[in-house]
Amino acid sequence: MKDIMLNIEALIFASEEGISAIEIKNVLQDALLIEINKDEVLSFLDKIKVKYQGEDSVFTLSPINNKYQFLTKVIYHDAINQLQAHRDRKKLSQAGLETLSIIAYRQPITKLEVEQIRGVNCDYSIQRLLEKDLIKIVGKAESIGKPLLYATSDQFMNHFGINSVKDLPQLKDIINEENSIGEIIE
């Protein structure tokens, strides 16, 4: 009996979008070579639900659209939302990484200077980097129009595990002769 209940828990856990009682019944019959009916499956599901209602569990068994799935309890949603926000902040597109690299090595730098180096508009990348708190506005340039100057933030240092921009790899350390084009002139 306990083996059946554990198998049901495993099926629910492994189901990305939930699993119905009928699906559980069919899978158990094929996998364990047993006869089980839908009412027995529902009885096991009730026992599993009771098992996870205790305070020592972060999960609950929830039927959604006649499919059962494990969900975290509501009291943990704030922590999970924070985790998702933290992970979202870590993801950068190729354009974002290129823009961030230029700002890191050439800071303080204006958006126009970044665009001249990249050769494309950087509005979106700079906005995303500001939202992710990887760069910050550090002032205004003395040139015409007083454009904003951008530099890396403390969050940038934390994210990449460095103490200062001096800890960034030097370009001469990254570029090797195999990746260069043309002749080397000394």
TrEMBL record:
**Which Pfam families does this chain map to?**
SMC_ScpB
Record bears the keyword Lyase: no
Gene3D superfamilies cross-referenced by the UniProt entry: Winged helix-like DNA-binding domain superfamily/Winged helix DNA-binding domain
The question of whether Cytoplasm is a record keyword is answered with yes
Organism's domain of life? Bacteria
Annotated InterPro entries: ScpB_csome_segregation (IPR005234), WH-like_DNA-bd_sf (IPR036388), WH_DNA-bd_sf (IPR036390)
Q: Which keywords does this Swiss-Prot/TrEMBL entry list?
A: Cell cycle, Cell division, Chromosome partition, Cytoplasm
Q: What is this protein called?
A: SMC-Scp complex subunit ScpB
Please report the organism this UniProt entry assigns to the protein: Sphingobacterium faecale
Gene that produces this protein:
scpB
